[in-house]
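Quick one, probably user error.
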């Protein structure tokens, strides 16, 4: 039990759990909506957008409250988060997944997890260093 508690105290572990939760939501919605759209030529792209809209909000809330334990303005952080998410989503969907599904002919169910893994580390670093960063304590405020 102490090992689990210790593991959950580590920010990268919490980030991984948050990412897995968001991925499961995103992946499920992506595949279900793509299946529902059938032979529509942009089924993968439309499905990816719908899945992103839901999973990104879940991921933002978990990251803000549990992973990074932020107390800053939600709206400011949400702006930064969605700026990163939009860039990440664009690279993941319209570069990586397009190449894998249209050029390499990978099925969506395989292309999606590969694209996610590629973006995972970069997104953690940007969120930790920029979006949810803690304010540094100055010497004067530390003395008070």
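Nope, works fine. Designed sequence:
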């Amino acid at each position: 039990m102490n090992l689990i508690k210790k593991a959950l105290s580590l920010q990268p572990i919490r980030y991984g759990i948050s990412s897995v939760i968001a991925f499961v939501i995103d992946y499920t919605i992506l595949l279900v909506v793509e299946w529902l759209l059938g032979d529509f030529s942009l089924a993968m792209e439309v499905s990816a957008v719908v899945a992103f809209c839901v999973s990104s909000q879940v991921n933002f809330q978990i990251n803000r409250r549990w992973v990074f334990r932020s107390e800053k303005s939600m709206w400011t952080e949400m702006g930064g988060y969605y700026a990163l998410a939009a860039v990440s989503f664009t690279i993941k969907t319209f570069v990586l997944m397009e190449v894998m599904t249209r050029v390499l002919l990978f099925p969506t169910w395989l292309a999606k997890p590969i694209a996610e893994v590629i973006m995972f580390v970069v997104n953690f670093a940007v969120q930790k260093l920029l979006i949810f960063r803690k304010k540094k304590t100055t010497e004067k405020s530390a003395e008070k």
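Residues 31 and 109 are 7 Å apart (CA to CA).
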